[in-house]
Amino acid sequence: MLKWLVTAVLNRLVFVTLLFLAVSTLTKTSCYPGDNPISQIGRAISSLRQFAEAFQKH
Predict the structure, then answer these.
(1) Ramachandran class of 28: left when φ > 0, alpha when ψ lies in -120 to 50, beta otherwise
(2) Using CA atoms, how far apart are residues 3 and 52, in angstroms rounded to an integer?
(3) Which of 3, 9, 35, 50 is the most buried (most CB within 10 A)?
(4) Residue-by-residue DSSP string for 1-58
(5) Count of Cβ atoms closer than 10 Å to residue 57 Cβ
(6) How many angstroms separate the CA atoms of 42 and 7, rounded?
(7) Would you write out the chain's pLDDT as a tens digit for each of its 58 residues?
(8) Over the range 3-31, which residues count as b (16 or more CB within 10 Å of their CB) and which as e?
């Protein structure tokens, strides 16, 4: 049950992050000024992966 819940939350986080990145790319506003969208997506994916690994250790 808990693993299913964590998977659902992580999938939702990935979806929301990708949606936010798409919107910020379209509107040309970014959290990190001067970044191109590719590095933003890479940073988001790496931070999500770190979060997932930290969560699985618990």
Answers:
(1) left
(2) 12
(3) 35
(4) -HHHHHHHHHHHHHHHHHHHHHHHHHHT--SSTT--HHHHHHHHHHHHHHHHHHHHH-
(5) 6
(6) 21
(7) 788 888 888 889 888 888 887 777 666 654 555 566 677 777 778 887 888 788 777 6
(8) eeeeeeeeeeeeeebeeebeeeeeeeeee
Tell me if 52 sits within 8 A of 11, measured CB to CB: no
The pLDDT value given to residue 51: 81
pTM listed for this prediction: 0.41
Query: What integer pLDDT is reported at residue 58 of this predicted model?
Result: 62
The amino acid occupying position 37 is P
